[in-house]
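pls read this protein.

:::
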Amino acid sequence: MPAKGKHRRPKSLRFTRTIAVAGTGGAALALPLLGATGAHAATPAAAVAVAQHTQKSATVAPAAAKAGTSKTYAVKAGDYLAKIADEQHVNGGWKKIYSDNRSAIGSDPSLIHPGLKLSLGAKAAAPQASAPAKPSAAKPAAAKPATAKAGTASTDTKTAAVGNSSGYTLPVDGAVIGTNYKVAGSMWSSGYHTGTDFVVPTGTTIKSIAAGTVVSAGWGGAYGNQVVIQHADGRYSQYAHMSSLSVSAGQTVTEGQQIGLSGATGNVTGPHLHFEIRTTPDYGSDIDPVAYLRSHGVAVG
């Protein structure tokens, strides 16, 4: 509160207001408080201090503006677009990152590699401490099936049945089929989905569909942690996006043997198992995995 009584000098207050008019921004608001402290608030020294404060305030704004400018992110092993969008708080999620970097990523958003430089655009503000916690990756996705790529969830959602004693079985029990084989989309370099997605929460047991030999087990880029198994008929089964592996290359496995646990590694939008049947161990030799399982007596959907 201003000092009252004979020590207050109106002329000094008017002089302070004159300085206030000359100021800008936050400095103009601060001056009445300076004038209210007493007669010596209107001294030349106070005016110099105000001018310095005004100049300092003017330089803060450009620095603050830089907080919202774009930034460059270098992809690391284990990264995928949805993970980057979440960790870097990108407005618009992974679709925004892909849209801004499509020329660098290419036609398949799942094929990002360590070292790739991505522009993340204006970084979103960090979530408030009071904001609700985001769902963990381990939350069951049955209510809203997650798929390997956005916009590809099949409208023909089915529940997979348990296999029989034909020597073949399902890779997971009681799972919901999310994205079916050969669903078309420009998101994939092949132009279509090369496998079938079984929507299961992280930590679900993944089984070998039949006896065979593990050809590879480890990191598969966009596929995350994956296992590829060769079977007696010369076909190969692939199991992708697993959170952990239980087998290694060269190991023999039996029908229904656990080979790992489901997860959301690689380029995914949620936990699930991406399952393929191939004529070779490599990408691009896929055939219909559901038709293959049915041909071996396994009931699917």
About this structure: The CA atoms of residues 108 and 187 lie 5 Å apart. DSSP finds six helices and 14 strands in the chain.
